[in-house]
Write a structure and sequence with these properties.
Distance between the termini of chain A: 25 Å
Radius of gyration of chain A: 18 Å
CATH superfamily of chain A: P-loop containing nucleotide triphosphate hydrolases
Largest sheet of chain A: 6 strands, mixed
CATH superfamily of chain C: P-loop containing nucleotide triphosphate hydrolases
CATH topology of chain A: Rossmann fold
Strand order of the largest sheet of chain C: 6-7-8-3-9-10-12-11
Number of strands of chain A: 10
Oligomer: heterotrimer
Shape of chain A: globular
Distance between the termini of chain C: 25 Å
Chains: A alpha/beta (238), B mainly alpha (276), C alpha/beta (309)
CATH architecture of chain C: 3-Layer(aba) Sandwich
Number of domains of chain C: 1
Chain lengths: 238, 276, 309
Amino acid sequence: MSQILIKYDRVSKSFGSPYRSRKIPVFHDLSLTIGTNERIGILGPSGCGKSTLLRMLLGLIPFEGGKIFFRQQDIKKMTKVERKQFHQDVQVVLQDPLNAFNPVWRMQRSLLEPFVLFPSLKNLLQPENLIKTQLNAVGLEPALLNRYPHQLSGGQLQRLALARALLVDPVCLFLDEATSMLDVSIQAQIMQLIKERQKSKNMSVVIISHDRELIKHMCQRIYAFKDEKFGEIKPSEL
Amino acid sequence: MKKISTKASIYFLIAVIAIIIVINIFAPLIAPYDPTATQMTLRNELPSSVHWFGTDGLGRDVLSRVIYGGRGSLFISFFATCLSMLIGIFIGGLAGWYDNWVDHSLQVLMSLFQSLPGLSISIAVVGVLGPSNYSILIALTLTGWSGVARIVRSQVREIKHKQYIESARTYLPSVFYLLFHHVLSALWPTLAVLTAQRMGRMMLSISALSFIGVGLQPPTPDWGVMIQDAKTYVIQQPWALIAPAVMICIAAFCLTRLGERLRDYRDAQMRTMENM
Amino acid sequence: MSHLLSIKDLEVTFRTAEGTGYAVTDVSADLKPHQITTILGESGSGKSVLGSAIVQLLAPNASAKGSIRFQDRELTTLSAKEMDRIRGTEIGWVAQNPQSALNSVFQIGTLIAEGPIHHKYITKNEKPTFVRKILTSLRLPEKLDKQYSFELSGGMAQRVLIASGSGMVPPLLILDEPTKGLDDNNVAAVKRIIEDLAARGSTPLVITHDVDLAEELADEIWIFYGSQLVEQAPKEAFFKQPLHPYSKGLIDATPKRGLVPIPGESPAFNTRPVRCTYYPRCPAALEICRNQACPTVTLDNRRVKCLRY
C-alpha cells in the first residue's frame, strides 16, 4: 500500500478581475490524494481548471478555501527550508516546449539553474557530469547543451525539460499537457521514458491531460473533471 | 539597385558615431587651433586654406570649435541616457512585475513625470539650479526616465507570463534573481534600441538648451552655443552656423537611425525564431 | 476518371541562411473528387508546405518545381491575378491559427462576406442574408455576425475561419490543421462542418497531424514523412493493414494502439534525399534500401513508396 504524498483537502478557487465585481468559481471543495509510487491521471477538457490545480500546489497562484498537504504538512505553513525541499521534490514539465527555456540562454545554463537555486545542490561537484548522464537517459546528445532553444525541435526541448525535472531526483513529477503539442511518435518516446523512470526510481507521476486514451494507457488511478464535477473514476468508466 | 542589408547599415551607423566620438575625444590633437582663442583682426573670415570653415564673430577658428563642439553634448547625453535608463529599468521592472499597489503607485509616478512638458521643465530646472553640466544632466534625467519605465513595464508584463519564467519560479528564486537573470536577458535588445534613440533625442535637447542660453555656456565650444553665436552674422559668415548645425544633424540622425535599424534587426530575428 | 487536382513531381525548396532546405520532394498524387482526403504527417514532414504550394501562397524564400494541375489548368504558371481569382472561388484555403488569421478590427459578418463580395459572388446588399445562411449552415449562432474575433473562443474562431474560407462552397477546400488546440466538442463540430461541406459538393483536403481525426473523418489517407508522400490508401484498408513501415509505426504510436515509440528523430534535409527518407529509423529496412532510389508502387487502389513492395 502506498503512502499519501500530496493531499488536496476541500480546496476552492475562483478567479476575479479588478474590473468585475463578480468572481468566477473554478472549483469548489475539491479533494484529491496522490500516493507514493503511483501514476495518476487528471483528465478534463481545456479551460476546466486542471492546470490551476498544479499552479496552486506550486504557489504560483493563491487559493481561498481548503488546504493542501505535502507529506502531512500544510504547504502554506512551511518554513523556508522545508519549502525549498518541497519544491525540489515536486518537479513539473509544462505544456509548451518552445517556451520552456530562456530563449537567450544556452541549454547548459538552463539545465544548471536548479543547481544554482536549490541550496542542497549548491555545493555539488561537477553537476555537468550529472546533466550529461541525464541527457543520455532521455536519449539526447550532450552536444545539444551548447545550442539555444530556437535551434532545437519541440521533441528535443521537451526531453530536455524532462531531463531538467529529473536532475534533482523528484519524488513526484507533474506533466501538465506535456506532450499535447508534440507528434504522436515523440509523445510515445517521452511516455515510455517516463514509465521506465517511474518504475526504477519509485516516484509518483501525475499526468494532466485532455487525452483520455493517453491517460487510460498510462495511469493506474484517474481523476476527472466532468460536467462541473471533479472526482475519481475507474479506468473502465472511460 | 540592391537593397542595403539591415546589418550593413547598423555597422555603418556605428562606424559614423564612433568616428564622431573619437574626433571629440582626441580634439586637442586634431584641432588646428585653440577653439577659444580669439583673433579680433580676423573676424567673420570666409573659408580659406588657413581656416577651412572660416572664423566666427570673435575671430575663433570654426573648424576647431566644431571638432571640440560635441564634447559637452555627447558626454552629458551619454550620462543622462544611462541614468534615465537605469531609473527607468528599475522602476519599470518593478511596476511590470507586481500586480498590486506597487504597480499602481509607480504608474501614477510615471504618468506624473510623463505629463510634464519636457523642454520647459528642463529650462525651469536649469533656471533654479543655475546653468552647469550637472543641472542639464539632472533636467534631462528627470524628464527622460518615465518614457523608458513605461516601455520596460509593458515588456516585463508580457515576459513574466512566459512559461520559462513560471518554470524558474518553481525553484523559488528571489524577485531580483528573476528580474535580473531572466527578464533582463529577454529585454536587452529592446534596451539597446531605446538607448540609441534616447541618446539622439537627448543630444538635440542639449543643443536646444544651449541655443536658448540655458545649456552649456559660452565660451565653451558647443554646437548649440555656436549656432546661437553665429546667428547674428549669418549673412556675412554662414559657415559658422552651417557647420555646427550639420554636425548636430549627423550625430542625432545616426543615433536615432541606429535605434530604428536595431529594432528592425531585432524584429527580423524574432520572426525567424518564431518560424522555426 | 478525371481528377480534381493532379500533382506531378512536385518539389518545394527553401532558401535559408544555412543553405537550401528540401520541404517537399518527389511528390505525385491525384485527388479524387467528392470525398474527404486527409494528409497525415508529423511536424516538419512537409504536409503544410504542400498545402500552401497548391494555393500558391508559399513564403517568399520558397520555390516550387513540378506541376500542379487543377481542373485542367496548370496552377504553377498562372499569373498572380488569375490565381487570386481561383483562390477563394474555386480553391478555398483555411489557414492555421484562427486567432491571428482573423482580422480583429472587422466584424465576423464582414470577414465572412469579404471574399464573396471581392469575387462578385454576392452583392453588398445580399451580405446579411448570405452571412446568416453561412452561419446557420455551420451551426453557429446568427448573432455572431456583429461580433469580433477576439470575443470568440478558439473553437468558435476556428469555425468562423472555415466559414470565411468556404463561403462560396469551392470545389476544392484545403484546411491546414483545422483542429489544432481544440477540445473534443469543438473537434466534433469542425468535423461535422467538413462532412457537411463534402456533402454539399466540395472536396475537402484536410492537413493534420492527428491520427484519430484522420481515422474518423477521411475517406482517403495520404501519409507524409520526411518531405515525401509515402503512402496513399483508402481509410479502411489503411487502418486494417498499413503498408509502409512508417505508417505502421505512426499508428502504433497512438495511445489507443499501444503508445509504441518510433526510435530516432524526424529528419531535416539540406540535400535532395536520394533514398527512402525513413530508412535510418525503419525497423524493416532491407539492404537495398541503403542506396537505391525508392519508386512509388501501385497496389490495387493504393500507392506506396517502399522497396519492399
